[in-house]
């Protein structure tokens, strides 16, 4: 179960962060980490408006062995992921952020 939760968390938070394009170019690591944390909290708090602001309109999210558009993710998996994450205790033990030109 813990492995499933970890895998879900990694998929949700690492792949949804494709929106960090401008911050990566500025090489502003602190802002990038803050954006990832803001996105995680938007999911946990079921704040679809905030999550939508943090994703670019052409963002691609890896979810359930498929690639979803921003609209599809926000209309379906966003809510179920938020219910799941908000119902459990969470503790960040380690966080490492790597980035390329348009992916973090």
Descriptive notes:
- The structure is a single chain.
- This protein is mostly helical and 104 residues long.
- It has one domain.
- It is built from six helices and two strands, in the order ααααββαα.
- It has a two-stranded antiparallel sheet with strand order 1-2.
- Strand 1 and strand 2 form a beta hairpin.
- Helix 3 (29-44) packs antiparallel against helix 4 (48-54).
- The longest helix is centred in the middle third of the chain and has 16 residues, at 29-44.
- The N and C termini lie far apart (26 Å).
- Residues 1-8 and 14-26 have low confidence and may be disordered.
Keyphrases for this structure?
mainly alpha, single chain, 104 residues, two-stranded antiparallel ribbon
Sequence stretches where pLDDT stays below 50 over 5 or more residues: 1-8, 14-26
Dominant shape: globular
Instruction: List the helices and strands in order.
Output: HHHHEEHH
Mean pLDDT: 77
Q: What structural class should be given to the helix and strand makeup?
A: mainly alpha
The domain count comes to 1
Give me the Rg, rounded: 13 Å
- Helix content class: 55-70%
Describe the largest sheet: 2 strands, antiparallel
Strand proportion: 5-15%
Distance between the termini: 26 Å
Looking at how many chains there are and whether they match, the oligomeric state comes to single chain
The total of helices stands at: 6
Spatial ordering of strands, largest sheet: 1-2
Number of strands: 2
